[in-house]
Amino acid sequence: MAKQIKVAVAGATGAVGREMLKVLEQRDFPASEVVPFASARSAGQKVPFKGGELTVRELTEDSFAGFDIALFSAGGGTSEKFAPLAAKAGCVVIDNSSAWRMDDACPLVVPEVNAHDLEWHKGIIANPNCSTIQMVVALKPLHDAAGIRRVIVSTYQAVSGTGQKAIVELENQVRRLMSGQEANPEVYPHQIAFNCLPHIDVFLDNDYTKEEMKMVKETVKIMGDPGIKVTATTVRVPVFYGHSESVNVEFERPLSPQQARVVLSQAPGVTVLDNPREKIYPMPIDAAGEDATFVGRIRKDETIENGLNMWIVADNIRKGAALNAVQIAEALIEQGLLGVPGVNR
Ligand code: 25A
Ligand code: L14
Questions:
Q1: Percent of the chain, pLDDT > 70?
Q2: Residue range 222-241: mean pLDDT, rounded
């Protein structure tokens, strides 16, 4: 009989943690037991799972004994502290925060792109940034076809990426402003309703945001090619679920829009929605709740020799976070890579 797999979800009361439970259920993940963990203030709270409810436990240093996989989405500080303890206990961590992504000992994985990097994991596997994930799902097949030189991306990111509190802030601001009250921003530095903020995560010394530099560095690590140059502008927009991206790509070799559509329509995880005459293109309201990365508006960049423009949309909470993490867990099982080298493998 196959091994019984015990799964811990750390940060189970958050926007991403709740979606992780939903994705485990929807994909009928082969777990013998799923246990939700969060901070002390949420211990005892119930979270829905498989038609019933699970009781949230407080995450502590010895929570991980007997678990095979821990899905983390409890913020970077929690991951820094608890992920090494889990790995030491023989539990493989799949971490959704930015804490471990650029660590040379941790694979950074989007299964459609680099599932092979799971082979060298040492107990902690990083789930990339949401904007990076959907971009590389679409770029990898195009890179294989024509060699990417440079990418210029601007994002239109939903508030759900910041968590449940930001979803509530957008709802409340819309209501307040429509009834003549002040916006009262708390989560974001400025009003987000009816506005755009060219500011996600913190500003760095080079005047880019940390979110923008994640897209630059993570893309190179996932694609395994330091020759790919990326420059990014990341923008928060008043959308609840679904990140959109305007992406300009310069290739080494020619690739027509029609060739790109064919390549993308055969690529894993991608759905092409590209029929401008019929007003068909990806939109966040349609991508919300879906698993695919949607690509449309594919057209030639007429200012350079080998260039295309496109529009990429995905559900940031699913493919950008919870779904990608569960797909990593499925790939680990498939490749026989459960267990931590030197501990229980
Ligand atoms: O927001 P926090 O504080 O970072 O918390 C996020 C999750 O981690 C848990 C926390 O439990 C929550 O489950 N957590 C924090 N510290 C912990 C610790 N020391 C810890 N777990 C263990 N040990 P909590 O008990 O603090 O619960 C409060 C959280 O519950 C959510 N919430 C509030 N109101 C809600 C609600 N959920 C559903 N319905 C409601 N009405 C809310 O979580 C609150 O903080 P959240 O959704 O705001 O948190 C999401 C976190 O994940 C990050 N994030 C989002 N998308 C991504 C991402 N990180 C990486 N990649 C992504 N794609 C967010 O930035 C946020 O930190
Ligand atoms: O994964 O949208 O590093 O505010 C941190 C910022 C996820 C999105 C990450 C946001 C991001 C989040």
A1: 99
A2: 98
127 lines ligand 2 (CB under 6 A): no
243 is catalytic: yes
Residue 2: per-residue pLDDT: 61
Sign of CA dihedral 103, 107, 112, 116: positive
**173 Cβ below 6 A of ligand 2:** no
Sole residue written with tokens 């259920």: 25
The model carries a pTM of 0.92
Closest ligand relative to 163 C-alpha: 1
Nearest of 101, 107, 105, 103 to residue 129 by alpha carbon? 101
Is the Cα torsion angle 194, 290, 101, 229 positive or negative in sign?
negative
Ligand 1: residue of 39, 55, 85 to mutate (most ligand atoms within 8 A of CB) is 39
Q: Whose CA is nearest to atom 11 of ligand 2?
A: 129
Instruction: Report how far ligand 1's centroid is from the alpha carbon of 165 (Å).
Output: 9
Mean pLDDT of the chain: 98
Domain range summary for the chain, segments of one domain joined by +: 5-128+322-334, 131-316
Tokens of residue 258, six digits: 């029609």
Is the CB of 161 within 6 Å of ligand 2? yes
CATH number for the domain formed by residue range(s) 131-316: 3.30.360.10
Query: Is 116 a catalytic site residue?
Result: no
Q: Strand (E) positions, the chain? A: 5-10, 31-38, 46-49, 52-55, 57-58, 69-72, 92-95, 124-126, 148-157, 229-236, 243-251, 270-272, 293-300, 307-314
CATH topology of domain 5-128+322-334: Rossmann fold (3.40.50)
Ligand nearest to the CA of 169: 1
Q: What is the pLDDT of residues 26-75, one digit of tens each?
A: 999 999 999 999 999 999 999 999 999 999 999 999 999 999 999 999 99
46 CB-near residues (< 8 Å, 6+ apart): 53, 54, 55, 56
Q: Which residue owns the Cα nearest ligand 2 atom 4?
A: 162
Residues 295 and 317 sit within 8 Å (Cβ to Cβ) = no
161 alpha carbon to ligand 2 midpoint, in Å?
5
